Description:
54% of the residues lie in helices and 6% in strands. The chain is mainly alpha-helical. It has a two-stranded antiparallel sheet with strand order 1-2.
Amino acid sequence: MFSRACEYAIKIMIYIAGNEQEGRRTGVKEISEAINSPEAFSAKILQQLVKNELLVSYKGPTGGFELAPKKQIKLVDIVKAIDGNKLLESCVLGLENCSGKNPCPVHFKFVEIRDQLKETLLSTEIRDPELITKGIGLT
């Protein structure tokens, strides 16, 4: 359902949130090993997350990544940062003129699923302890 980059971004954010709870920053090498992703690919995703102000990057010997401070980060923020709004707003078949008045063959079936997905993404916060605990076995 999500792009591969988005899947990795969610894993990255969960992993960083877990390390944040332990009071430490996380480097790109550690992240890529933890989520089983190529380091260069992880670095590009991390750059995008920083650009979208979901992460903060620190340089130097105590550097690494942390979640944006004082910001409630929802799963929907990660999806939008990496994949945009397409999944949450566009026609599942990719038709430009699909709507309630001009529905595609699966419009009404997919609307319900998309609404449930939106609700889950909007209501799930990345610092949720349950999400972090279950996210420990990411690889």
